[in-house]
UniProtKB/TrEMBL annotation:
Lineage start: Eukaryota, Metazoa, Chordata, Craniata, Vertebrata
Highest taxon, organism lineage: Eukaryota
Primary localization: membrane
Family: Belongs to the small GTPase superfamily. Rab family.
Name by which UniProt lists this protein: Ras-related protein Rab-23
Entry GO MF terms: G protein activity; GTP binding; metal ion binding
Cofactor(s) needed for function: Mg(2+)
EC top class, as a word: hydrolase
Subunit structure of this chain's protein: Interacts with SUFU.
Species the sequence originates in: Sinocyclocheilus grahami (Dianchi golden-line fish)
SUPFAM superfamilies cross-referenced by the UniProt entry: P-loop containing nucleoside triphosphate hydrolases
Presence of the UniProt keyword Calcium in the record: no
């Protein structure tokens, strides 16, 4: 259990070629709607949703980045600080599948290794697929990523994608907390050893053994408003 009355906020970037369904996926997840119209994302957009994962309040901030290369310079800046990533390609767009590795590199260059998931969207159009199942699964294996097939249109597997990422992020956070506790524990043992030197004062010890407690989690105060779970900012 993490601290009470605190909620974990996770910045998630959704990336992939144009028209694969990134905006639609975020809209489906945060607003529960799907539209057939294609409106190219200019730069970056963001929506958020609060969920409970393993008893923890989690606020997912979903950043919708433009898939068109012309916006690359703008979108890259928004990867900074991202804590999880969704890589999306479309069942009916071969190029979007082949571009996945380069999208991953772009994100990794900015934020390193963060919880990431590979998503094949538009599986309602499987009859027109241009990517074999083995190819998609092979890519996921090569990149060591969990793989989901979604249809934003039919609302298939969208919730699962974000739940998995939140869960994975929380696991890392807990592991990190445990490691920090371990560091404090080890240092305090060392202070005990120093105590055997008769002329040392507490001040001396503190100046030698500095214990760094880093608030390394991005958290916000818990919102009590039950209607605040989905907002357009
Ligand atoms: N059949 C089908 N169409 C979908 C699905 N998801 C999205 N679409 C359609 O695909 C088109 C592109 O969707 P967007 O969400 O705008 O794509 P995007 O990836 O955000 O595109 P950019 O903003 O250019 O990066 C729209 O016409 C959507 O209605 C799906 O699961 N199935």
């Amino acid at each position: 259990m993490l601290e009470e009355d605190m909620e974990v906020a996770i910045k998630v970037v959704v990336v992939g070629n144009g028209a694969v369904g990134k905006s639609s996926m975020i809209q489906r997840y945060c607003k529960g709607i799907f539209t057939k119209d294609y409106k190219k994302t200019i730069g970056v957009d963001f929506l958020e949703r609060q969920i409970i994962v393993n008893g923890e309040d989690v606020r997912l901030m979903l950043w919708d980045t433009a898939g068109q290369e012309e916006f690359d310079a703008i979108t890259k800046a928004y990867y900074r600080g991202a804590q999880a990533c969704v890589l999306v390609f479309s069942t009916t767009d071969r190029e979007s599948f082949e571009a996945i590795s380069s999208w991953r590199e772009k994100v990794e260059m900015e934020v390193g290794d963060i919880p990431t998931v590979l998503v094949q969207n538009k599986i309602d159009l499987l009859d027109d697929t241009v990517i074999k199942n083995e190819e998609a699964e092979g890519l996921a294996k090569r990149l060591k990523l969990r793989f989901y097939r979604t249809s934003v249109k039919e609302d298939l597997n969208v919730n699962e994608v974000f739940k998995y990422l939140a869960d994975k992020y929380l696991q890392r956070l807990k592991l990190q907390s445990a490691e920090e506790t371990e560091v404090v524990h080890t240092s305090s043992n060392k202070i005990g050893v120093f105590n055997t030197a008769p002329h040392q004062t507490a001040g001396d010890l503190n100046s030698r053994e500095v214990i760094n407690l880093r608030p390394n989690k991005q958290r916000t105060k818990k919102t009590k408003n039950p209607f605040g779970s989905c907002r357009l900012l």
